[in-house]
Amino acid sequence: MNTYEKITALLDQHHAEYRVVEHEAIGQTDVISAIRGNDLNQAAKAMVLEVTMPDGADARYLLAIVPGDCKINFKSAARAIGGKKSSFAAPEKAQELTQCVMGAVPPFSFDDRLALRIDARLRDVGTLWFNAGALERSVALNVDDFFRVVGDDCCADIATPMTATA
């Protein structure tokens, strides 16, 4: 079963309200949002992070989901799973853990080695948009259904609006 099939099976199992949209194969959030017609804050950007754990414990991996109009806060993301700091995982490792090319990673983890945290700003977007395991296919999902499927314990403050100055 490929990632797209896993997503639709999971959503169907939970009787989630969603629709699939076919489009050009694009993995850039701003460009694909314009093509799909969704607001940038409704787009779920997925990033695989490597998290340094305290006391020399083995690194952990995190699938961080932030709104399209935000950037990842690496320190907050690490703390969300008990870590000290984080950085982008090596592309090969990210692809191994997600079974997707970068740009097509959905906001779901199907690998026990990949913790999931979703920025709390996504709670209020109405409809969540994301690439569904393939660059040419997106899903529009009712955000309440999304959080019903993934659970509330995945929510964390892990993003910073792009307009904010540091």
Short description:
The chain has helices spanning 3-13, 29-36, 74-79, 91-98, 143-150, and strands at 18-22, 44-52, 60-67, 70-72, 85-88, 114-119, 127-134, 137-142, 155-156, 159-161.
Supply the number of helical segments.
5
For the record, give the distance between the C-alpha atoms at the N and C termini, rounded to a whole number: 43 Å
Number of separate strands: 10
- The assembly state of the depicted protein chains is single chain
Rg over alpha carbons? 15 Å
Strand content: 25-35%
- What is the H/E string? HEHEEEHEHEEEHEE
Task: Provide mean pLDDT, rounded.
Answer: 94
How does the major sheet shape up?
5 strands, mixed
Return residue spans where pLDDT drops below 50 for at least 5 consecutive residues.
none
Structural category: alpha+beta
The strand order across the widest sheet is 5-2-3-6-9
Percent of residues in helices comes to 10-25%
Q: How would you describe the shape? A: globular
Q: What does this molecule look like?
A:
β2 and β3 (60-67) form a beta hairpin. Helix content is 25%, strand content 33%. It is of the alpha+beta class. The longest helix has 11 residues, at 3-13. The chain contains 5 helices and 10 strands; from the N terminus they run αβαβββαβαβββαββ. A 5-stranded mixed beta sheet has the order 5-2-3-6-9. It has a 3-stranded antiparallel beta sheet with strand order 1-8-7.
